[in-house]
């Protein structure tokens, strides 16, 4: 019984460790890559690295996420698990150029 209890406590940590990690770079006020495909039903660790000297905000109403990334900074945003579909995101400070989509399949 003791081992079962220990394993039960570790299961959330094991699931967390199994997350996919994807990196998006902000450069010249654009997201690279701007189109991402991720597995549906899986939690994703999204690392956003800003190579520009100015801050940018990763924003997505569809993903319910909003995070400012300092110039030459980096942040981690957890998303999902996502249902199959398309989830647009954009950079609020440079909406004309900083756009992208995450597609869950």
- What would you report as the Rg, rounded to the nearest angstrom? 16 Å
* Main beta-sheet annotation: 5 strands, mixed
Q: Termini, distance in Å?
A: 39 Å
Number of strands: 9
Write down the overall geometry. Answer: globular
Order of helices and strands: HEEEEEEEEE
User: pLDDT below 50 for ≥5 consecutive residues: which ranges?
Assistant: 3-8, 13-18
Multimerization status: single chain
- Count of helical stretches: 1
Biggest sheet strand line-up:
3-9-8-5-6
What is the overall pLDDT average?
A: 88
Strand content: over 45%
Structural class, by secondary structure, is: alpha+beta
Q: What percent of the residues sit in helical stretches (DSSP H or I)?
A: 10-25%
Features:
105 residues, alpha+beta, five-stranded mixed sheet, disordered N terminus
Structure description:
This protein is an alpha+beta fold and 105 residues long. It contains one helix and nine strands, in the order αβββββββββ. A five-stranded mixed β-sheet has the order 3-9-8-5-6, with no helix packed on it. Strands 2-1-4-7 form a four-stranded mixed β-sheet, with no helix packed on it. Strand 1 (20-27) and strand 2 form a beta hairpin. Mean pLDDT is 88; it is low at 3-8 and 13-18.
């Amino acid at each position: 019984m003791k081992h079962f209890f220990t394993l039960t406590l570790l299961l959330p940590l094991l699931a967390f460790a199994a997350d996919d990690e994807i990196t998006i770079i902000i450069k010249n006020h654009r997201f690279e890559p701007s189109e991402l495909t991720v597995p549906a039903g899986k939690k994703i660790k999204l690392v956003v690295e800003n190579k520009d000297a100015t801050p940018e905000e990763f924003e997505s109403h569809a993903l319910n996420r909003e995070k400012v990334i300092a110039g030459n900074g980096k942040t981690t945003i957890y998303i999902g698990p996502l249902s199959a579909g398309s989830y647009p995101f954009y950079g609020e400070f440079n909406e004309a150029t900083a756009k992208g989509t995450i597609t869950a399949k």
